[in-house]
Amino acid sequence: MEGELVIGIRTIPLIIVGVYLIIMLAFGFIVNKFLIKTSTDYMLAGRRLGLIMVATTLSANNIGGGSTMGVATRAFGDWGMSAAWWVLAASVAMIPLAYFAPRIRKTMAYTIPEVIFRRFGPTAGVFTSVLNITSLFTLTASQILASGTVINVLVGIPLNVSIVLATVAILIYTCLGGLTADAYSDMFQYIIIFLGLIVAVPFVINGVGGGATMAESWANVSAMLPPVQLSLTKIGWFTIISLIINYFCTFLSGPEMVSRFSAAESEKSAQKASILSAIMMACMAFLPTLIGLAALASGQLDNGGQALMWATTNYAPEIVTGLVAAAMISATMSSADSNLLCASTIFIKDLYQQFINKGEISEKKLIFLTRASNVVLGIFAMLIALRRIDIISLNLFAFALRSAGPFAAYGFGLMWAKATKNAGLCAIAIGSVVAVSWEIAGHPLGVMPVIIGGASSALTFWLVTMIESARGVPPAPSPNRPEVEAELAEVTESE
Fold first, then answer.
1. Which of 35, 89, 96, 245 has its CA 20 to 30 A from that of 356?
2. What Rg do the C-alpha atoms of the chain give, in angstroms?
3. What are phi and psi of 360, to 5 degrees?
4. Which residue from 319, 301, 318 is spatially nearest to 310, judged by alpha carbons?
5. pTM of the full predicted structure?
6. Nearest to 124, CA basis, from 412, 403, 427
C-alpha cells in the first residue's frame, strides 16, 4: 500500500546494523574490562577527555532521534525547510555556553544537583534531582521509540516488540562502559550519523525528482512542493528565537551536557569544545530536513513520522538504507545512554549517597548501583516509549521539566557570588510551577513552557537576591568544592 513502510526483513541493512551493534557492544565490553577502574571512570570518563572528544560527545549526544527522525517529520509536516532550525538553533545556543563551560569544569562536581546542594541547600538539591531524573528518562523514552521504529522497518516485527528490543540493546551498552565508552564511541557515532545521512540525501532527492543531475532533481522536487514549504523562516522568527532560547536554557541546565564539560581534561578544553560542537551540529541541520521534504514531494506517504526511514528505504540502495539505519541507531543510542547514565548518576550521588547511605561505599559497589539504576530507569523509559508519543513533543516537555526551574539557580549560581540561598530555592520552585502550568494550558501565545518558566525563574532569582542582600543576608556558599576554593584562595594571596 502506498504511504506505508514496506514490511519484511531487509537483509543487507539488517546485517549492517547488526555488525554495527556488535562492534559497539564489544567496545563497551572492552572499555568495561580495561578502563573502568573507579566510579569517576564510569560516570565522568575519569575527567580526562580532550577537546575533540568533548566536542564530538556533545554533538553526538544532541543529534538524537529528535534531531534526525523528528526533524524529517517536521519538514514533512508544518515546518518545511525551516525544520532545519531545530538543529541550527541548538548550534547557535552552544556558542554562549563557551562562557559557562570553564566555570562548570571548575566546580569539580559530578552533577547539577551537586552544585545546587552546595549553594542552596538540600531542599533545592532534592527538588532539582527529581526534576532532572524525571526529564532524563522521558528523553530516553523518545530515543527508545526512535530506535524501535528503525528496527520495525528493518525486521518487520511489531513496533512494540521493536521498542523492547531497542531497550535491551541500549541498556546493555549503557551498563557496560558508562561515559568512558560513550565518549570514545561518540566520535565514531557522529561520523556514522553524518555520513549515513549525507550519502542518503542525493539518492532520495534523485529518486523523487527523477532528474539527470542532482540540481535538476532538486528543482523537480521543489516544483512538487508548495513554495511556502521551501522557506527557511516558515515557522517565523518568534519560534526560531524561542528555539534558541529553549536550547540555551536546556543546555546550561542539562545534566548530559554538564557531564561532558565536567569530564573535560581542563577548563580550556571545555570552553573550546563548546564552539567546535556548534560547528559540528550546524553541518547536520539540513540533511534530515531535505529527506523529509523529498518524502512529502513524493505524494506517497501519509504518516510523516515515518518520513526519514520510508524515503531511504524506498529510494536509496539497501547498503545506504543500512547506513542510515545504523546512523539512526547510533544517534538514539548515543543520546539514550547519556540520558540514562546521567539520571543514574544523579540518583546515586545526589539522593542515595546524600540520604540513604551516607557512609563509605566502595568504588565497585558505586558502579554496580549505578548500573542497576540504569536498568530500572530504562524500563520506565520503555513504558513511556510504548505509548508512542511524538518524539519532539516528548523532548520539549522534558526540556521544560528539567530546565525552567533549575536554569537560573544553576546558571546564575555559577557566576553570581552574591546570590542568596533562598534565591535558588524560590527560583527552582516558581520556574517549575510556571512551566508545568504553561504546558497544561497548551502554550498560550505560542510561548514555550521552558521560556516562560525560565524567565520566571530568572526574575525570581534576581528579585530574592536583591531583596535579601539589601537586608544583609549573606551570600550562599561557593559552587566549587572546598579544596578548589582553598586552591583559588592560595593563588589570590600569592598574587
1. 35
2. 22
3. -70, 135
4. 301
5. 0.83
6. 427
d(CA 366, CA 38): 9
The CATH homologous superfamily to which domain 11-403 belongs is Sodium/glucose cotransporter (1.20.1730.10)
Burial 300-309 (b: 16+ CB within 10 A, else e): ebeebbbbbb
Q: Tell me how many degrees the CA angle 248-380-326 measures, rounded to the nearest 5.
A: 65
Q: Identify whether the C-beta of residue 207 lies closer than 8 Å to the C-beta of residue 291.
A: no
* Cα→Cα distances 384→83, 304, 329, 390, 460, Å: 25, 21, 19, 11, 33
Look up residue 347 and give its DSSP letter. I
How far is it, in rounded angstroms, from Cα 317 to Cα 52?
32
Every domain of the chain and the residues it spans: 11-403, 405-495
CA 87, 104, 97, 437 torsion-angle sign? positive
Give the other-Cβ count within 10 Å of 380's Cβ: 16
Are the beta carbons of 287 and 198 closer than 8 angstroms? yes
Query: Is the CB of residue 301 less than 8 Å from the CB of residue 295?
Result: yes
Sign of torsion over alpha carbons 262, 264, 268, 271: negative
Each of the 495 residues of the chain gets a pLDDT tens digit; together they read 344 444 445 677 778 778 877 887 888 888 888 888 888 998 998 999 999 999 998 988 788 667 888 899 999 999 999 999 999 999 999 999 999 999 999 999 999 999 999 999 999 999 999 989 988 888 888 888 878 877 887 777 888 998 998 899 888 888 888 888 888 777 877 888 888 889 999 999 999 999 889 999 999 999 999 999 999 999 999 999 999 998 998 899 888 889 999 999 999 999 999 999 999 999 999 999 999 999 999 988 887 777 888 898 889 888 888 877 777 776 677 778 888 899 999 999 999 999 999 888 899 999 999 999 999 999 988 998 898 776 666 667 777 778 888 989 999 999 999 999 999 999 999 999 999 899 888 888 888 888 899 999 999 999 999 999 999 999 999 998 765 554 444 434 444
